[in-house]
Write a structure and sequence with these properties.
Radius of gyration: 22 Å
Strand order of the largest sheet: 5-9-4-1-2-3-10
Number of helices: 9
Number of strands: 15
Protein name: Protein FixB
Structural class: alpha/beta
Pfam families: ETF, ETF_alpha
Order of helices and strands: EHEHEHEHEEEEEEEHEHEHEHEH
Cofactor: FAD
Family: Belongs to the ETF alpha-subunit/FixB family.
Helix content: 25-40%
Distance between the termini: 63 Å
Keywords: Electron transport, FAD, Flavoprotein, Transport
Length: 308
């Protein structure tokens, strides 16, 4: 039976994948099946409206170890579209699935729709400078990054949750799980961010941005140079093409030029406010509001105004 399948080891992302999957269901007339290796996540996924949830029973296994079993299952089920969460591990799984299914693979899709000859996929290329439109013949495997789509609204429909025994690849075993040490907050989940760049002269000057962030109840973020070159902020706060991708309600860019490598990580913010003394800085082309001025004067004024 043909179908549209979604899989991610990240529950929140798996839920987000159901939004494009349900849209495709309306066009293709095929059922949506959510796959999870976490039995505790099955009910949460079922509440978002797929037709079925299959719980992969393989014992403790990494997503990579599940890839061969997933490929076998998808072949037997006749999957036409497979949406995989675009995490590092998810992309590993997606590549394996595409190879076994002899399917086309598109990564980091922004939009999906049926097209003549297969599945139409839109992707952002060259750090946001171009949009690629591709058509993948069925079956098609596509990865989607977190927060590309919002999860669908809860559904009251009854959804079958069924166990699915699978055999994990014994060559890949989970021997220990250890939480990675992180400094500070998860900025990917922040709704307000104040991002800093090389316009700040010293590390101590970041207190100006921290003051504004406090007044806005926002978190601090930064460019790659501030995190990797200056080491003024943890690398987890670095936004850009090889750093974090964020989608906050408010993004205040202070003292950063707005190179495309940075903008690709924040371009989907709802409102971007730029503060820069160079009126020709690229950040102003992406900003909704801009202040041309010295951040050493502007930030204290803004912080004081917000405090009143």
């Amino acid at each position: 039976m043909a179908g549209i399948f979604v899989y991610s080891e990240d529950l929140a992302l798996a839920g987000q994948l159901l939004t494009p999957a349900l849209d495709l269901k309306r066009s293709l007339g095929q059922p949506v099946v959510a796959l999870t290796a976490d039995a505790a996540s099955a009910a949460a996924l079922a509440a978002l409206g797929p037709d079925r949830v299959l719980v992969l029973e393989a014992g403790p296994a990494s997503p990579e170890a599940l890839a061969p079993a997933l490929a076998d299952l998808l072949q037997r089920e006749g999957a036409q579209v497979v949406l995989v969460g675009g995490t590092l591990r998810g992309k590993h799984v997606a590549a394996h699935l595409a190879a076994v299914l002899d399917a086309g693979l598109a990564s980091d899709a922004k939009a999906l729709a049926p097209a003549e000859g297969g599945l139409g996929v839109q992707r952002i290329l060259y750090g946001g400078l171009a949009v690629s439109e591709e058509v993948l013949a069925y079956p098609a495997v596509v990865t989607v990054q977190a927060r590309t789509f919002l999860p669908p609204p809860p559904s009251a429909a009854e959804v079958a949750i069924a166990p699915q025994a699978v055999l994990a690849d014994a060559r890949v075993q989970v021997t220990r799980v250890e939480q990675a040490a992180r400094e500070g907050v998860d900025i990917a989940a922040s709704q307000r961010l104040v991002a800093v760049g090389r316009g700040f002269r010293t590390r101590e000057d970041l207190d100006l941005a921290a003051g504004l962030a406090g007044a806005l109840q926002a978190d601090l973020a930064c460019t790659r140079g501030i995190a990797e070159d200056e080491h003024w902020l943890p690398i987890e706060r670095y936004i850009g093409i090889s750093g974090q991708t964020v989608k906050p309600e408010l993004y205040v860019a202070a003292g950063l030029s707005g190179q495309v490598q940075h903008l690709v990580g924040c371009r989907e913010a709802k409102v971007i406010v730029a503060i820069n003394s160079d009126e020709r800085a690229p950040i102003f082309e992406a900003a909704d509001y801009g202040i041309v001025g010295d951040l050493y004067q502007v930030l204290p004024l803004l912080t004081a105004a917000l405090a009143r």
